[in-house]
Amino acid sequence: MKILITGAGGFLGKRIVERLLAHGQTDLRCMVRDVAKAQGLRDLAARHNVEFEIVSVNMRNAAEIPAAISGCGLIIHAAAALKGSPAEMFMDSCVASRNLLDAVAAMQATSPVRVVQISSFGAIDVNSQPRGALLDERVPMEPHPEKRDLYSYTKLRQEQIFWEYQQRFRFELVVLRPGVIYGPGGGRFSNRVGLELFGRFMHLGGSNLLPLTFVDNCAEAIVVAALSPQAAGQIYNVVDDDLPTSREYLQRFSQQVQPMRAVPVPFFVLMAVSRAVERYYQRSKGQLPAIFTPYKTMAMWGGNRFTNAKLKAIGWKQLIPTNEGIARSFAWFRENPVAKK
Amino acid sequence: MCYNWACPVSISPSLRPAAADFGPALRVGIVGCGKIADAHAEVLTFLPGATLVAVCDREVLLAEQLAKRFAVPRYYTDAAEMLAAEKLDVVHITTPPAAHLPLTKQCVEAGANVFLEKPLTLTAPESVELIRAVEAAGKRLAMNYWPNFEPQMMEFKQRLAAGEFGEPVHIEASIGYDLGGAYGQALMSDPNHWVHRMPGKLFQNIMDHMFNRIVPFFPDGDPEVQAFGFKYRTEIRNDSTDALLDQLRVVLRSGRLSAYATLASQAQPVGNTLKLYGTRATVEVDFNLRTVVTTGSQRYPSSLGRLFPPFQQAMQYLRQGRKNVRAFRQHRFHFFAGMTELLTQYYAAIRSGGPLPISYAEMLSTARIMDEVNAQVYPQNNTPNATDGGAA
């Protein structure tokens, strides 16, 4: 079975390719948008002494997709926008997905295909749950994505589109919702830890457990679910075990990467600030953006926890222990310091 | 000499009428829900006397997200359907410029006034056709030259009109563009991006902002244009993005007045200034700092004339900073304050039939200068005689 991986040149995509190879899947077609990102994949193929296809496709252009998915029995859709303007993010996450699914729908009658979508915890209606609750895959989807951060909105809309098409065209769909994907080459701090404001790092996560998943563990989860017959039509949370609190992560980062002078902001203070920011936004007619609102704050820093029991039930095992994942990441951060602007 | 900016139309925020004074709110729609549409929706959310009632994009997901994020009641994928259903007073057209002419015709024929994103069209003759269509329909047009209505530009225009700087001798407009930024990356990573298909490519998308600051100083006709375009970046991607030049220098002259325009895509920080060398003082408007600072004649003898000026300049920045803080405290310091001012003036002109904030002659002069620049820096794509668009 030929397997297509979209976003294969990305942080997660490359690891998915590696895990597929580890599972003995070598008939791969790697889709990248920017040919400049293909070199990492070529190196990967050389290291594993295999050959796989690399195709360059801009998924905003629907016409480019049918040929790229032709002959594939499994599509792992890892391409998504992480940043950019709202329109750019919707184009690269939602429009690109819709274009992909149009091509899948056209192919489905003659050549059935299983589709795996990488969603996010951002798609979940965490605000309907008690603060700090343990959330499984039965929690409904966010009813007010427009009130959340842009990334969450795009990921939620993307997942909705996948379910809409699955209902209409009846292909096999598997959805994975990773938490914070981290690792060498990734970001240093999730917003769940905090934000840099006015040159100071505001520690907003306090004693919340960070829903981390090391990039190799996440890729393994995707591949296990993608290849598992019983995963069809299912949603899986993807999060590692033995998670650190936000405070522990930050302390360890300070000790092992670089000293951080973070300003701790307790949750009740953050909520008060969020209410004030929202009021100011209205009173000043949008003079400053409402980057904090009670709704966003509750969703991002409310301290919900996520279970991975369902993922384990289909055979996923955490490849890299969290301690080691953090150590590897921090080692990479030390060797690759962020250039000062 | 009368140059157009010596007679600014300004509505002081403190004198601006309350929402109740406008009468029925203008019904506004947006066509084109890409990046810049966000700015329009943001300004319209809080603008008195106007209500954003509908948005439209051929891509339904883009129309949907803009409508939901800004609580717009309805969204469409067909402009004709929106125009028929919504009976709009004004349509903001925020599509790529190739669609400006047909969409403007469609809107004015449906009875709507039009607020256009820059550039006006792809060529000056098309621009003439567009303005004729607006006039034939008895409707009114404005372009989103919002930086020219920023608080510091309003101050500059008033002080210019008061004669503080004397007669202009030379003008410099400078603007930067970060090709490594989010917007720059969007077009550099996509060889099919619409910017690559415009006659002036990247320049055409942003050089308006230089020339529309210079054109009001040449009210008697188009200046002579000498343009130089070249590429600073070295990386080659082996696709159509390679054809894109990233540096533009333009010299303009008419009679005793000269001007110089710089578009630099690699220099940091990304600049955005207007400098006027006058017979009494030289003044620089910095759009990023929101300051208007003059360099006056030296008043002190000998080395004292080198000692005091930095402090005099510092005092000017202090005064400008205080003014900005005051505006911020009064909630008049929004990022797109210039668009709020421009739309306030434009909507007032629609209601009253009074003068428009930007004359059609200025728009067309800017379009002709852009055609001339394109012909000189991309001669293979642009015929030299393509700039025959006369003033409407």
TrEMBL record, chain A:
Pfam families attached to this UniProt entry: Epimerase
Residues covered by the NAD-dependent epimerase/dehydratase domain: 3-238
Residues annotated as transmembrane: none
InterPro entries linked: Epimerase_deHydtase, NAD(P)-bd_dom_sf, NAD(P)-dependent_oxidoreduct
GO cellular component: cytoplasm
Gene Ontology molecular function: aldehyde dehydrogenase (NAD+) activity
Top-level taxonomic group: Bacteria
Name under which the protein is recorded: Nucleoside-diphosphate-sugar epimerase
Automatic annotation (TrEMBL), chain B:
Source taxon at top rank: Bacteria
Record key words, sorted: Oxidoreductase
Domain Gfo/Idh/MocA-like oxidoreductase N-terminal: 26-145
Presence of the UniProt keyword Oxidoreductase in the record: yes
GO molecular function: nucleotide binding; oxidoreductase activity
PANTHER family (UniProt xref): BCDNA.GH03377
Name used for this protein in its record: Predicted dehydrogenase
Organism for this UniProt entry: Bryocella elongata
